[in-house]
């Protein structure tokens, strides 16, 4: 499996220049149901029971046992501040998993790389960052969890990674880090949310793919990035004969790597 990080224009420029990516709090995401998991209990829970400790990396491995399908035996709803706690303490960055060795998800390019004007970062297989990503669970209805999960010593933030199946095309994997480890820029985004950034180490990056509509300025930054770090940078172009992309410029790959990429794209 390959792991990609799609970036829009300004985020792409920031990564090529400074090797940083943005980490959002859940309330800044584009899904109004983001991490809005309902907690229900078989018994009424005392307020003292609501103190929650959570872990950022890994998952419980047994989330299915806490999912409630029929809530008739769980009549009590738990009003917990876990969502607010996470929004105040945790930043998240989204990646996408793919069976392809190139970023060929047209919707991801359109939605998260500003209509193919940005780039996609490919992580190295077995890299540290890829090893601590956690998958998002796609479900058909808003999830309910047994509130007893909050009392476990191994409650993980990733246990709240649920999204509607409408988002399944993303095949999302998430990286969560403490906001205290991020730098916060002076300016805010267009929606008024703070911009938290953290480095994405180049040692974890295998290759950079520039979108088919990337500007000459981004291409220049891609070349300078390759010159500085020696990481291959590929410029994509939309195919004219069928849906898909082809490589039109490359910085760095060996001849054999170029041949393999061309074979994947179907270039003769």
From TrEMBL:
Name this protein carries in UniProt: DUF2971 domain-containing protein
Domain of life of the organism encoding this protein: Bacteria
Organism of derivation: Vibrio orientalis CIP 102891 = ATCC 33934
């Amino acid at each position: 499996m390959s792991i990609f990080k799609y970036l829009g224009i300004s985020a792409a420029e920031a990564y090529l220049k400074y090797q940083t990516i943005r980490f959002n709090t859940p309330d800044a995401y584009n899904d109004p149901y983001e991490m809005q998991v309902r907690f229900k209990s078989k018994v009424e829970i005392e307020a003292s029971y609501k103190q929650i400790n959570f872990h950022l990396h890994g998952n419980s491995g047994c989330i299915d046992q806490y999912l409630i399908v029929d809530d008739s035996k769980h009549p009590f709803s738990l009003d917990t501040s876990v969502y607010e706690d996470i929004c105040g303490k945790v930043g998240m960055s989204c990646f996408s998993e793919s069976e392809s060795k190139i970023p060929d998800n047209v919707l991801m390019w359109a939605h998260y790389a500003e209509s193919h004007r940005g780039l996609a970062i490919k992580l190295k297989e077995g890299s540290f960052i890829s090893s601590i990503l956690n998958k998002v669970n796609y479900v058909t209805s808003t999830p309910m969890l047994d509130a007893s999960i909050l009392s476990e010593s191994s409650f993980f933030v990733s246990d709240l990674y649920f999204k509607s199946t409408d988002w399944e095309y993303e095949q999302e994997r998430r990286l969560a880090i403490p906001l205290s480890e991020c730098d916060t820029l002076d300016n805010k985004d267009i929606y008024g949310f703070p911009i938290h950034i953290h480095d994405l180490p180049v040692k974890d990056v295998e290759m950079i793919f520039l979108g088919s509509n990337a500007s000459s300025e981004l291409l220049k930054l891609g070349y300078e990035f390759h010159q500085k770090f020696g990481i291959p940078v590929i410029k994509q172009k939309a195919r004219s004969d069928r849906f898909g992309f082809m490589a039109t410029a490359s910085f760095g790959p060996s001849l054999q790597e170029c041949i393999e990429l061309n074979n994947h794209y179907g270039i003769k």
